Each structure stands twice: as structure tokens, then as C-alpha cells.
# Entry
Amino acid sequence: MQSAHHDSVSKLIFELSKLPGIGEKTAARLSHFILRQNEEYAKALAEAILSAKQKTGLCHNCLIFTDVSPCRICSGPDRNATAICIVERPTDVLSIENSGNFRGYYHVLHGVLSPLEGIGPEDLKIKELLSRIRQSSGTILEVILATNPSIEGEATALYIARIIKPLGIKVTQLAHGIPVGGLLEYSDKQTIGKALENRMEMT
# Structure
């Protein structure tokens, strides 16, 4: 019969292994690191997670995770209101921001089209994107599609391009300085910068 201590450690490993990119071995290493720290560290970690979960919501403009709405990017005084960059996930916003090559606004889809997983247009933040464009009173002149160069990312970009082009807005896509199958959050800032500079208009 397992001891209560072993049960609690197993539970910690199990919960940590649910995090993306964290396998069972890494989860075990993280668990053992946490257990070696003093109790104050464990409390601070638990409180930070709970606080972030309780105080964080979606920016009502770009839909990134934030504790204030509009978020710090959307409320920045020196942003270019004529361009909006469409990304799959909140982490992609940070990757593009770190490149330093884009000063417009963002829109987070929170996923990509994936018929095999039952994810359709209604499951993404496309309706909110169209609403933003309509409410912009013609200030948005360009939509940059920065979905990842995967099959699903490309299909999502094409779907959005087909919807937006009839509105008379220029639709561009990141140049493929980012390798096919690569992810924005793992690309270095120079690669993302080049992809932004060399973006192509979608036909």
C-alpha cells in the first residue's frame, strides 16, 4: 500500500506533467526541486499560480491574457493603429514583440482550424476579429497573418484572408524565414524580424 507522502508526490508529478512540453521525467525533476525548497517557496509558488489565475482575464481588444484591460500593448501610446497582426496564441504576441519589428496591434485567435480535432471557425476568435475591423471606422489598413507555418496554420490564414480581403483591407502573411513546421515562440527574434519585414500580400 502506498504511503500518503508518496501519493502526494505522485500527484504533484502528475499535475506538473500536464504542462505543455513537460514530460514525466521533467515533472519529477521539478517536483523534487520544489520539495527541496523551504515551505515559503512552495507557498509563494502556489499563491503566484492562484493569483495569476484569479486576476488574469482576456484583453477586450486583442484577447491576450492580461491583468488589466485594455492590456499594456493595446494601451501603448506609440502603437500603429493601421496594422493588426493575427496570431494563434498569446505566447506568439510576446515572440513578435521581442523582435522589435512590429508596432501595430494584435489579435489572438486562441487556436487554429483543425477539422480532425473538431475545431471550426466558431471555436476561434474570428467573430471578434471581424467586429474589431468593423468598429475601427476604416483605420485598419493591413491585416498581417502570423499563424504558424503548419498545415492547420496555413489553412487558418487562408480562411481569414478569404473573409477579410473583400472588406478592402490589405492582407499580408509572414515571409517563410520561419521554417515550415517551426513555431513562432521557438524562433529567434532576428528570424521573426525578417519574416515581418519580408511579409507578402496574400492573393
Notes: Residues 3 and 9 are 10 Å apart (CA to CA).
